[in-house]
Design goal:
Blueprint (H helix, E strand, L loop, with lengths): L2 H18 L33 E2 L3 E2 L19 E7 L5 E8 L3 H16 L1 H8 L3 E11 L5 E10 L4 E11 L2 E10 L7 H14 L2
Antiparallel strand pairs: 1-3, 2-3, 3-4, 4-8, 5-6, 6-7, 7-8
Helix pairs in contact: 1-3
Length: 206
């Protein structure tokens, strides 16, 4: 997705979050330490027909690759960790993990992220009249405390099209968000393979 679309969507997201008053309670101090959650490997991404996936290092911070739909607005200052993936062509992916202080906070955070993804298409269209966006709900997955998969397609007035699949899953106090994206439309999205990737991502956390 072009950078100006990402920026527009982020602006709309911020306004929507603040308008809704979505502020989650900050985590309490003194939480018991827990092993860091594990990340997907390159081989666990939906297979690309002509190019192998390459995995980057696990990195501290919130990934820019989630910025078009998901942001840190309205949530506590958690320690975010992420890993980015890419192919030699136009396909990329990213996984984010966040460990909350309690399972209740993690449940609220997972719902918050899913709500942002669910409303992302409307926010993009409202903020940029040159972009048409459509979101789709691909349902829930019975893994750990649950996961949901959604899709997003955008098309600009000059003909650029992008499709992405996004999921939010939770295992206890840990939330993970996975995004796959490339040029194209919903017909190009490997939904079944991405559901398998999401299930693997949640199961692999611990």
């Amino acid at each position: 997705m072009p950078k100006h679309i990402r920026a527009s969507a982020l602006t709309a997201l911020t306004v929507a979050a603040l308008t809704a008053g979505t502020v989650l309670t900050a985590p309490a101090a003194g939480a018991a330490p827990k092993a860091a959650p594990k990340f997907l490997s390159a081989s666990q991404l939906p297979p690309h027909p002509t190019s192998a996936w390459t995995a980057g290092p696990v990195t501290e911070g919130f990934p820019e690759g989630l910025g078009s739909c998901v942001s840190t607005e309205g949530v506590p200052s958690y320690d975010y960790r992420h890993r980015e993936f890419r192919t030699d062509l136009d396909t990329n992916a990213v996984q984010l993990t966040v460990v909350a202080d309690t399972a209740a906070l993690a449940k609220a955070l997972a719902k918050h992220y899913d709500d942002l993804i669910r409303t992302c298409a409307d926010r993009i269209e409202k903020n940029d009249p040159e972009v048409e966006a459509e979101g789709r709900d691909y349902g829930t997955l019975p893994v750990e405390e649950g996961a949901r998969v959604r899709g997003l397609h955008t098309e600009t007035s000059w003909g650029a099209t992008d499709v992405s699949l996004l999921s939010v899953g939770r295992d206890g106090r840990t939330v993970t968000v996975v995004r796959w994206a490339q040029m194209g439309d919903f017909a190009d999205a490997p939904v079944a393979a991405f559901k398998k990737t999401t299930t693997t991502a949640v199961n692999k956390l611990y």
